[in-house]
Specification:
Radius of gyration: 21 Å
Distance between the termini: 41 Å
Mean pLDDT: 84
Helix content: under 10%
Order of helices and strands: EEEEEEEEEEEEE
Strand order of the largest sheet: 1-2-3-4-5-6-7-8-9-10-11-12-13
Oligomer: single chain
Largest sheet: 13 strands, antiparallel
Low-confidence stretches: 53-61, 254-259
């Protein structure tokens, strides 16, 4: 069991009334009943003050705006079962809540439950398939929705430190408003990376239907990220990271627009 609390203070020159403190509380617990069965749980609580403008705190699938307080809670759990020498079964569940002080952002509560089957094929190759069912709620600001997502994929990891993973599938969004039409789209998750003694890198692209991250009620989201790291000595290294995220509102017809 691990727990960590990380406060961070922001000081503003000549505007001491804007000084504020953010808080991050993270905990995790893992238990293995046997070499074939294990359970892992984690919880992350975050409070961000009204004047959060630090670009280093930007993250994927989040909305960062000025003059806004954000409180969030993220619980995740997964159970892994080694069903044979080459097959792993995983059951997962997550619960996330976001609350914003800004009236133009949408408070959200998400529940997601899923299952994955993965099988190693030898020489670093593996194949997998999975299904996730999600419930998106928007705290009375917009009708909620249910999401169904399935995918199949392939992964590869070499002894030289090179890794690839590609998964693709389909999303279906079912609004709670019975008069509204359903929405659908592709689900893509691709990553690559290399971990060497001197140089390492990672990059990825993700696309799918999400809750909108607080910007919209439901969105077609896409994100990219990349990191490059060079180790000059054991105590000296340099790292460059880039990331981009796009939320595109999903409009429904036949009922109330989910804005």
């Amino acid at each position: 069991f691990d727990i960590a609390w990380s406060p961070q203070t922001y000081f503003y020159v000549e505007r001491s009334d804007l000084n504020a403190v953010s808080h991050n509380l993270n905990s995790s617990w893992k238990h293995a009943w046997s070499p074939a069965a294990s359970l892992e749980l984690s919880e992350a609580l975050q409070y961000t003050p009204e004047n959060e403008v630090d670009p280093n705190s930007l993250a994927l699938n989040t909305v960062s705006v000025q003059r806004n307080r954000r409180t969030s809670s993220s619980f995740r759990g997964h159970f892994d079962w080694q069903a044979g020498s080459a097959t792993t079964l995983t059951w997962r569940y997550s619960w996330m809540e976001r609350a914003f002080s800004a009236s133009n952002l949408i408070d959200t509560a998400d529940h997601n439950a899923g299952f994955e089957w993965r099988r190693r094929l030898g020489r670093g190759h593996s194949v997998f398939t999975g299904y996730d069912y999600g419930i998106f709620s928007f705290k009375g600001q917009a009708p909620g929705s249910d999401r169904h997502a399935s995918n199949v994929g392939w992964g590869y990891a070499s002894r030289m430190g090179i890794a690839f993973s590609l998964a693709a599938g389909y999303n279906i969004l079912l609004p709670d408003d019975q008069a509204a039409e359903t929405a659908s789209g592709l689900n893509v998750n691709a990553t690559t990376g290399y971990n060497g003694g001197v140089v390492s890198y990672s990059a990825g692209y993700r696309q799918g239907i999400t809750d909108g991250g607080g910007a919209f009620a439901n969105a077609q989201s896409s994100s990219t990220h990349g990191t490059f790291r060079a180790n000059f000595t054991r105590s000296l290294s340099a790292e460059v990271a880039v990331a981009g995220h796009v939320n595109e509102r999903i409009r429904v017809t036949g009922g109330s627009p989910q804005d």
